[in-house]
Specification:
alpha/beta, Rossmann fold, about 50% helix, about 15% strand, globular, binds flavin mononucleotide
Length: about 240
């Protein structure tokens, strides 16, 4: 298996040590991106990625390579320390540059592991935020490792190994999980907007060109009868209320 690691800490210390331990529990090839070295300029808020297409972003050349690597990898490991009760600036800036993926999700066949470390608190909230962000990108299943390192001399190797092995087994299985109800709702929000008079032309083009407008969820991901019905009902409701 090929794992892409996106490291959102500017240094190789607590978060990096957890990732090194994760690597020992996984059998695969690893490619690591240190976001600090990528030097992605700050998102300038031009909205071009959302409104006109991601390739119109002035920084797209910096971000494109990372997104292509996610596409090529079997799974992604994405990490952040807690900074002021949130993700690091490096991770937030990267997420800002992928905001268009909320509208136009693509990574439906990928799985991810989120690694968060903190001195004392904020790790659960930050891991939850990263988990939700990745699911907005379309990512099928997100695993979490979150640790408060303050005052601790050593890593919780057992806990790391347990989650890393679950993650690896899932990645190796190639099996895709049924989406959460919330993921189905968001899918239908963007789908309904695409078939209505959506002023965001890049969204309309994407949803029609990919054929996603004709599906209850991404076709690679199978829905059971209940979620299929739920998706159809959500689409009908959202089309009426929007
Ligand atoms: C700018 C900054 C802000 C931080 N904010 C918090 C915080 O809000 N809560 C907390 O418990 N730890 C906070 N920390 C501590 C880090 O989250 C913690 O040391 C983390 O494990 C660092 O990861 P790293 O070694 O990979 O850089 C902060 C550290 C820095 C540098």
């Amino acid at each position: 298996m090929n794992y892409l690691i996106i490291n959102g800490s500017p240094r190789k210390k607590n978060t990096w040590a957890v990732v090194e331990q994760v690597k020992k529990s996984l059998d695969g090839n690893f490619e690591e991106i240190q976001l600090a070295k990528e030097k992605i300029p700050l998102c300038n808020g031009c909205m071009k990625c959302i409104m006109d297409g991601e390739e119109k972003c002035h920084h797209f050349e910096k971000v494109k390579g990372i997104l292509e690597k996610i596409e090529k990898a079997d799974a992604v490991i994405i990490t952040s320390p807690v900074y002021a009760m949130n993700v690091s600036g490096l991770i937030k800036n990267f997420i800002d540059h992928t905001a268009y993926l909320y509208h136009r999700p693509v990574f439906f066949t990928k799985k991810a592991l989120v690694v968060v470390t903190t001195a004392g608190t904020g790790h659960k909230k930050v891991a939850k935020y990263m988990d939700e962000t990745l699911r907005h990108w379309g990512i099928n299943k997100v695993y979490q490792l979150k640790f408060a390192c303050g005052g601790k001399e050593s890593l919780d190797i057992k806990a790391i190994d347990k989650v890393a092995k679950q993650f690896a087994k899932d990645v190796e299985s190639g099996k895709l999980h049924s989406p959460k109800f919330m993921d189905i709702i968001f899918f239908n929000v963007w789908k309904a907007m695409a078939v209505m008079d959506n002023p965001i032309k890049a969204d309309c083009i994407f949803w029609h060109e990919t054929g996603l407008v004709n599906h209850d969820f991404s076709p690679e991901v199978k829905l059971g009868i209940v979620k299929k019905a739920f998706s159809k009902i959500m689409f009908a409701i959202l089309k009426r209320v929007m």
